[in-house]
Design brief:
- The complex is a heterodimer of chains A (about 375) and B (about 260).
- With about 375 residues, chain A is mostly helical.
- Chain A has 2 domains: about 80 residues, no CATH class; about 240 residues, MetI-like (MetI-like fold, Orthogonal Bundle).
- Chain A contains 14 helices and no strands.
- The longest helix of chain A has about 40 residues.
- Chain B has about 260 residues and is α/β, with parallel strands linked by helices.
- Chain B is globular.
- Classes of the chains: A mainly alpha (about 375), B alpha/beta (about 260).
- At the A-B interface, helix 10 and helix 11 of A face helix 2, helix 3 and helix 6 of B.
Chain lengths: ~375, ~260
C-alpha cells in the first residue's frame, strides 16, 4: 500500500531572532557567582562594632540598632559590587529575616530567664510544691525575714486547682468543639446554618475573658444562689467559653485538609458515613487535632480574671470542683503580688508569686511537648 | 458473584446543571465494559452513579433507573451504603489510607464495617485479596508497613485489593492507570483481564488502546458543545466500536480527528 500523495508543505521563512537579550528595551541583570563568605565577614565586623559601641558607653539598645543598620548597609554595598542588585537585595532580605527572628525570640528568652532566675529558688523547692497557704499569715513571713522561722506556705492547692479546673474545661470544650467542627465540615458544608454557626464562633473568639467569667458566675448564681455560686466548675465553664471557639476553628481547619479522596475511598467500600468520619477522617487528622486542643488548653491555663470572678480564692487545698472556691496558679501569683501576706515584708510573697509563674510556664511547656508527642504518635506513617 | 446492570434513561445533575442526559445501556456480567470520550463528557460522572458515589457531592442528583439484577439502586428504600458494598470502586489516583498498614488497608472494608473478624480469617482474606490483585508476592514480607510506602502502581493494586476484599458484585474503575507508568499500567490491565472471570468490571479510560485491549464492550460518550450535557453516543462490542462504528462522531474520535 503506497502512501497517499500529499501537497508539499509551503516554504516558511525562518522566524525572526527571538532570544530575550535581542529584544529592545529589555536589560537582563547579569548572573555572577557569589559566596556567603563576605556576609560572614560583614556580620563579624558589625558584631565588633556593636560590642565596641557598647563598651564605649552607648546604650546597649542603641548599640545593637546601630550595629544592625551598619550590617544591612554594608551587606548591600558589598554584594552590589560582587553580584549586582538582585544578589544584594537577596542578602539584605535574608539579614532582615534573621533580625526579625532574633527580635521575636528576644521577649521569649527574656521572659524564660526572668521567671527562672526569680522563681527558680522557690519553684523547685519540694516544701513549696507540697504545702498550701492554709493558716499561713504575715507573721510567718515576718519571722522568716527576721531569721526566726522557716519559709512556710506553698502552691500545692493552686497546682491542684489549675489542673482540675483546666481539665474540666477541656472535658467540656473538646467534645463540644470537635463535634461542632465535624458538623461544619462533614455535614453542613456551605449551608446557611453552618455560616451562622461559623459567624457566632468568630464572635465568641472575641469575648473578653472577664465577660466569660461574669457569665459563668451569673449562671451559677442563678442555679445555686449568690453565696454558693463560686466553685471550680463555674471556672471550668468560663474557661470553656474561651476554649470552644479556638477548638472549633482549629479542628475545622484540620478536618478540612483531610483529602476528600480518603472519604470517597472509604464510602466506596460501603462504609457508613459516621464510621468513615470516626475511623478514617479523625485518625488522619488526629495529630493536628491533638496539637490544636493542646494549644487551646495552653491559651486558657493562664487566665486570671474569669477565675477570680467565678472560682474565688482559696487558701486551703480543695479537690472538689463542685463546692466552694479553689485556687489556681495564675490567681495565686496575682494575689501574692498585689496583696502580700505581710505588707511590711513583701519579699516572701513576691517569691511565691514568681514561683507560681514559673510553675505555670513549666506546665505550658510540658503541654506543648505532650502535643508534639501526640502529633508524632498519630502522624501518618511514611516508612517503607 | 457478578451481576448484570441495566441503566434506563438516566439523567444526572449537579444542582441545576445537567451533566449527562438520557443514558440507557446494559452491562453484561463477567465482562469488561469501557467508557471512552473527551474530557468533561460525563463518563466519570456516569460511572459514579453506578454505586451512588455521585450523590456524595453536595447538590448532585439523578433521575432515572439503574437496575442491578432487576433491583433499582435508586429505589426509595435502598441504602446507598448497601449499594456500595455490592459495587466497589477504584479511583483515578491511588488512595490508600495513610494511617494504616498494607494489611489494614486491604482489610479496611471489612474492619470498618465492623464485622467480627478473627486473626486467621483476616490473614486468609488479606492474602486472597492481595493475590487477586497480583500484589501478594511483592508485599508478603512487609504487610505491616504503611501502604503509602509502596510505588504508585503498587498502591493502585493495593486499592484494587481493598475493593475486592469485600467481594463486591461489580468493580468500577475511574481511569485507574492515568497516574501510572506503562509497566504498572500493563500490570493493572493484566489484572483487569483476570478479574473479569469473577466480577463485572466497568472502566473509564482516556486511553483508547487500553479500551481496545481490555474491554469486551465499549461505550462512547460525547457532548455536542461545552455547557451541554454529555450523552452516550454509541455502545457496542469493542470490535464494532473500533473497527466499524455506526456513528460519524465515534469514528472521528477513534481515529483521532478530534478530542
Amino acid at each position: 500500500m503506497s502512501a497517499p500523495l500529499r501537497p508539499a508543505p509551503p516554504v516558511v521563512p525562518p522566524p525572526p531572532p527571538s532570544r530575550l537579550r535581542d529584544v529592545e528595551g529589555l536589560v537582563l541583570s547579569p548572573l555572577r557567582p557569589t559566596t556567603r563568605r563576605p556576609a560572614v565577614l560583614v556580620g563579624s565586623l558589625s558584631v565588633l562594632l556593636t560590642v565596641g559601641l557598647w563598651l564605649g558607653d552607648l546604650h546597649p539598645g542603641a548599640a545593637v540598632a546601630a550595629g544592625a543598620l551598619t550590617h544591612l548597609v554594608l551587606l548591600y554595598a558589598v554584594y552590589r559590587v560582587l553580584g549586582g542588585h538582585r544578589v544584594a537585595v537577596d542578602h539584605v532580605m535574608r539579614a532582615l529575616v534573621h533580625l526579625a527572628f532574633g527580635l521575636a525570640l528576644l521577649p521569649l528568652v527574656s521572659l524564660l530567664w526572668t521567671v527562672l532566675t526569680l522563681g527558680g529558688g522557690r519553684g523547685f523547692d519540694p516544701q513549696f510544691l507540697w504545702q498550701t497557704m492554709n493558716g499561713v499569715t504575715g507573721l510567718h513571713d515576718q519571722a522568716y525575714a527576721e531569721g526566726r522561722g522557716d519559709f512556710v506556705g506553698g502552691a500545692f492547692h493552686a497546682i491542684v486547682g489549675t489542673l482540675v479546673i483546666t481539665g474540666l474545661a477541656t472535658l467540656i470544650s473538646v467534645p463540644v468543639g470537635l463535634f461542632t467542627a465535624i458538623y461544619l465540615v462533614e455535614y453542613a458544608a456551605g449551608n446557611r446554618l453552618s455560616s451562622a454557626v461559623r459567624f457566632l464562633v468568630d464572635v465568641m473568639t472575641g469575648i473578653p475573658s472577664i465577660v466569660a467569667g461574669l457569665f459563668a458566675f451569673a449562671l451559677f448564681a442563678q442555679i445555686f444562689g449568690l453565696r454558693d455560686a463560686k466553685m471550680g466548675l463555674a471556672g471550668a465553664v468560663a474557661l470553656s467559653v474561651l476554649m470552644i471557639p479556638t477548638v472549633v476553628r482549629n479542628s475545622e481547619e484540620m478536618l478540612r485538609i483531610v483529602p476528600n479522596e480518603l472519604r470517597e475511598a472509604s464510602l466506596a467500600l460501603g462504609v457508613p458515613k459516621w464510621r468513615t468520619i470516626a475511623r478514617i477522617v479523625l485518625p488522619t487528622a488526629a495529630s493536628g487535632l491533638a496539637s490544636g486542643i493542646t494549644l487551646a488548653v495552653a491559651r486558657v491555663i493562664g487566665e486570671t480574671a474569669p477565675l477570680l470572678v467565678a472560682v474565688g480564692y482559696a487558701r486551703a487545698l480543695s479537690w472538689n470542683p463542685f463546692e466552694g472556691p479553689m485556687n489556681t496558679l495564675a490567681v495565686y501569683a496575682y494575689f501574692m503580688f498585689t496583696k502580700p501576706l505581710s505588707p511590711a515584708v513583701r519579699e516572701p510573697s513576691l517569691e511565691r508569686a514568681w514561683a507560681a509563674a514559673l510553675l505555670l510556664v513549666l506546665i505550658v511547656v510540658a503541654l506543648n511537648l505532650l502535643a508534639r508527642l501526640i502529633a508524632r504518635l498519630f502522624a501518618p506513617k511514611t516508612g517503607r | 458473584m457478578s451481576k448484570r446492570i441495566d441503566v434506563k434513561d438516566l439523567d444526572i445533575y449537579y444542582g441545576d446543571f445537567q451533566a449527562v442526559r438520557g443514558v440507557g445501556m446494559t452491562i453484561e456480567p463477567r465482562s469488561v465494559t469501557a467508557f471512552i470520550g473527551p474530557s468533561g463528557c460525563g463518563k466519570s460522572t456516569f460511572l459514579r452513579t453506578l454505586n451512588r458515589m455521585h450523590e456524595v457531592i453536595p447538590g448532585a442528583r439523578v433521575e432515572g433507573e439503574v437496575l442491578i439484577d432487576g433491583q433499582n439502586l435508586y429505589g426509595r428504600d435502598v441504602d446507598p451504603v448497601d449499594v456500595r458494598r455490592q459495587v466497589g470502586m477504584v479511583f483515578q489516583r491511588p488512595n490508600p489510607f495513610p494511617t494504616m498498614s498494607i494489611k489494614e488497608n486491604v482489610l479496611a472494608g471489612l474492619r470498618l464495617n465492623a464485622r467480627r473478624l478473627s486473626g486467621r480469617a483476616a490473614d486468609e482474606l488479606a492474602e486472597r485479596a492481595l493475590r487477586g490483585a497480583n500484589l501478594w508476592n511483592e508485599v508478603k514480607d512487609r504487610l505491616d508497613k504503611p501502604g503509602s510506602g509502596l510505588s504508585g502502581g503498587q498502591q493502585q493494586r493495593l486499592c484494587i485489593a481493598r475493593a475486592i476484599a469485600i467481594q463486591p458484585e461489580v468493580i468500577l474503575m475511574d481511569e485507574p492507570c492515568s497516574a501510572l507508568d506503562p509497566i504498572s499500567t500493563l500490570a493493572i490491565e493484566d489484572l483487569i483481564n483476570e478479574l473479569k472471570s469473577d466480577y463485572t468490571v466497568v472502566i473509564v479510560t482516556h486511553n483508547m488502546q487500553q479500551a481496545a485491549r481490555v474491554s469486551d464492550r465499549t461505550g462512547f460518550f460525547n457532548l455536542k458543545e461545552t455547557g451541554q450535557p454529555g450523552e452516550l453516543v454509541e455502545y457496542d462490542s469493542t470490535q464494532t466500536i473500533f473497527n466499524n462504528p455506526r456513528q460519524k462522531a465515534t469514528e472521528d474520535y477513534i481515529s483521532g480527528r478530534f478530542g
